[in-house]
Amino acid sequence: MPIEHIRTKLAEEPRQLDIEKIGARLLHHGLKIRIDNQFLSDVGDRWCCEITNDDGESVTDNFYGHHAPSLRTAIIEALQGVEKSQHKQKELIND
Q: Among 15, 54, 60, 76, which residue's CB has the most CB atoms within a 10 Å radius?
């Protein structure tokens, strides 16, 4: 299942997130998810999500999924960042 389908499925799921299920879907594609929560004094809790490959290198383009107001938003943004990164890689290969 390509990354964009995972993101679509996530958007369709109930508000309750099943992080293990999302992680399993990503792992099936050789990816891992890293989630962090930070408290920023000016805005409160913020969620960060990064998706990495087996080598621990980020595959999320440009800090997508960082400092989002909710965990759900952070994960969706990180998946969008992966899609953007994959698109850039395809463009580089085709040039």
A: 60
Angstrom distance (rounded) from CA 95 to CA 76? 29
Q: What is the structure's pLDDT at 1?
A: 43
Output the pLDDT for position 84.
77
Closest by alpha carbon to 82, among 59, 62, 66? Answer: 59
Whole-number Å distance between alpha carbons of 32 and 51: 6
Cα 62 to Cα 35: distance, rounded to the nearest angstrom? 16
Query: Which residue ranges in the chain fall short of pLDDT 50?
Result: 1
List the Cα angle 7/51/55 in 5-degree steps: 140
Residue 47's pLDDT is 82
What global pTM score does this model have?
Answer: 0.65
Inter-CA distances, 49 with 15, 90, 91, Å: 17, 24, 25
